[in-house]
Design goal:
Structural class: mainly alpha
Order of helices and strands: HHHHHHHHHHHHHH
Shape: globular
Largest sheet: none
Length: 285
C-alpha cells in the first residue's frame, strides 16, 4: 500500500471519527441546550413557543421566583446536596484510598477473597440495597436524618477497586520501604508518600462519588420525609408531582434543574486541572 493511499485512508478515518464525535456531542448537549432555553422563558411561553428557540428572556426573574418559593426551600435543598455530595465524596474517597492501598501493598490471609467480595459489591445495584438499609437504619433510629443519606454514600466498592489497581501500578515498593527505613509509620507513609502518587486516581474517585451522590434520588426518597432534609433531586421531584395542581411550579422545576447541573460542571472544570497535573507528576516520578 502506497503512502498516498495510507494518507487518504487516514484522512477518511479521521473525518469519520470527527463526524461521529460531533453527532454524539450534539446528542448529549441538546438536552442541556433545551434546559437553558426553557429556563429563560416565562411560564406562558413554555407551551406556546418553539422549545429550541429563545423568546422573552426572564431567567433572572425565574431564578428569583425559584429561590423565593416556599420560604426559600430550594436554597436549603441546594445546601443539603452540597453537604451530601462534597462531604460524602471526600470521606468516601479517603476510605477507598485506604482500603485500596491496604489491598495492594499488604499481604494477609483472605486478601484476594476480600477483594472478590468488593468486586461483587460493584455489581449490586444501589436500589437493591435501599430497603435493607432502611430497615437497618430504622432499627438504629437514624432514618430521616442527614446520616441516613450520608453513611451509605461514603461506601464505594468501585472506588476501592480503582484505588487498588492504581496503587499497585503507581506506588513503587522501593519508595515505601525507604520511608519505613527513615522511621515513618504506616499511616505517615500513606499520607506523606503514597497519597501523593495516588492523586490522579483520588480525583477520579472523588468525581465519580460526587456525581453519584449529587444525582442520587432513590435513597433519599426512601430515607427522608422532612422537606428540610431533601437534596435537590428529591425536592424537584416533589415539585414536579405538584405541577398538575399548581402549573406555575413547572417553570421553577425547569429553572431548578438548570441550577442543579451547574455545581457538577464547576467541579469537573476545577478538578480537571489537578487531574492533568497529577497524571503528569505521576509519570515523571
Amino acid at each position: 500500500m502506497s503512502n498516498q493511499t495510507r494518507i487518504r485512508e487516514s484522512r477518511v478515518s479521521r473525518t469519520a471519527a470527527m463526524a461521529l464525535m460531533l453527532l454524539l456531542a450534539i446528542y448529549f448537549l441538546l438536552p442541556i441546550y433545551f434546559l437553558i432555553v426553557a429556563a429563560t422563558k416565562p411560564q406562558g411561553d413554555l407551551a406556546s413557543t418553539n422549545g429550541l428557540a429563545f423568546s422573552h428572556f426572564d431567567l433572572f426573574s425565574n431564578l428569583g421566583t425559584l429561590f423565593g418559593r416556599s420560604d426559600g426551600i430550594f436554597g436549603r435543598w441546594a445546601l443539603n446536596s452540597v453537604i451530601y455530595a462534597v462531604l460524602g465524596a471526600a470521606v468516601g474517597t479517603l476510605i477507598s484510598a485506604l482500603c485500596g492501598y491496604a489491598l495492594a501493598k499488604f499481604r494477609f490471609r483472605g486478601r484476594e477473597f476480600l477483594f472478590s467480595v468488593i468486586l461483587g459489591g460493584v455489581l449490586v445495584p444501589t436500589t437493591a440495597l435501599a430497603l435493607p438499609l432502611f430497615l437497618l437504619f430504622s432499627a438504629t433510629g437514624i432514618v430521616n436524618t442527614y446520616l441516613a443519606v450520608f453513611l451509605p454514600s461514603i461506601v464505594s466498592p468501585f472506588g476501592v477497586y480503582l484505588a487498588r489497581i492504581f496503587t499497585a501500578a503507581a506506588v513503587p515498593e522501593e519508595i515505601l520501604e525507604s520511608a519505613r527505613l527513615d522511621g515513618a509509620g504506616e499511616f505517615r507513609t500513606f499520607f506523606s508518600v503514597a497519597i501523593r502518587l495516588m492523586a490522579p486516581s483520588l480525583v477520579t474517585i472523588f468525581l465519580f462519588q460526587f456525581v453519584a451522590i449529587w444525582n442520587n434520588f432513590f435513597l433519599p426518597m426512601v430515607m427522608l420525609q422532612k422537606d428540610s432534609l431533601f437534596p435537590i433531586t428529591l425536592g424537584l421531584y416533589q415539585w414536579n408531582g405538584q405541577t398538575a395542581r399548581a402549573p406555575l411550579l413547572q417553570e421553577s422545576v425547569i429553572t431548578g434543574s438548570l441550577v442543579s447541573i451547574v455545581p457538577v460542571i464547576i467541579v469537573f472544570i476545577l478538578l480537571q486541572r489537578f487531574w492533568r497535573t497529577g497524571l503528569a507528576s505521576g509519570s515523571l516520578k
